[in-house]
Design a protein that fits this description.
Elements (H helix, E strand, L loop, with lengths): L23 H15 L5 H9 L9 H15 L5 H14 L4
Helix pairs in contact: 1-3, 2-3
């Protein structure tokens, strides 16, 4: 089965090399991912597999992939439910004034 990282030779267009400001949610995603690794909750290989399994891989940014894959792993391992994750995301959105 071909995965997103098996794109060698396929036309993909130019690579966007523009720099951008790192947003708070991206820093948070990075920190959570590292913390889960250090706590032994997940491995880099599990995370990579989860990223490559995302159905919308090509539409997501780098850290959107990390966040979606981490969420999927937490649900897959039975540590959190989608409902719990969505409730907390809604709570954070309200606290940060995004809604």
């Amino acid at each position: 089965m071909e995965r997103p990282h098996d794109l060698g030779g396929e036309p993909a267009g130019p690579v966007d090399r523009r720099e951008h400001e790192v947003e708070d949610w991206e820093r948070l995603t990075d920190a959570i991912t590292i913390a889960l690794d250090r706590k032994g909750v997940k491995t880099t290989d599990e995370h990579r597999r989860a990223i490559e399994s995302l159905p919308d891989y090509r539409e997501l940014s780098y850290y959107e992939r990390w966040a979606a894959a981490t969420e999927n792993l937490l649900v897959e391992k039975g540590l959190l439910s989608r409902k719990e994750i969505d409730a907390r995301a809604e709570e954070l959105s309200r606290a940060w004034g995004e809604r």
